[in-house]
Amino acid sequence: MVAVTDKVVKKLTMQTAEIAENTTAIRSLDWDRDRIEIEVC
Predict the structure, then answer these.
(1) Which of 2, 3, 31, 40 has the CA that lies 20 to 30 A from 23?
(2) Which stretches within 1-41 are classed as H helix?
(3) How far, in Å, are 15, 27, 28, 37 from residue 19 at the CA level?
(4) pLDDT, tens only, 1-41
(5) pTM of the prediction?
(6) Cβ distance 28 to 37 under 8 Å?
(7) In the structure, how many helices (H) and strands (E) does the chain have?
(8) CA–CA separation, 36 vs 5, rounded Å?
(9) Could you give the CA distance from residue 39 to residue 32 in angstroms, rounded to a whole number?
(10) How far is 37 from 5, CA to CA, in rounded Å?
């Protein structure tokens, strides 16, 4: 017996924005897990 599965497509969106001089905010949205992460560097 052979099991066939569909290929998993992961959805990830990344956005960046300069919020001050030498400071960038990075936002990543993981649509598969309904999670948002924000980093400032």
Answers:
(1) 31
(2) none
(3) 12, 12, 16, 16
(4) 556 666 666 688 888 899 899 888 888 888 777 777 777 87
(5) 0.53
(6) yes
(7) 0, 3
(8) 28
(9) 20
(10) 30
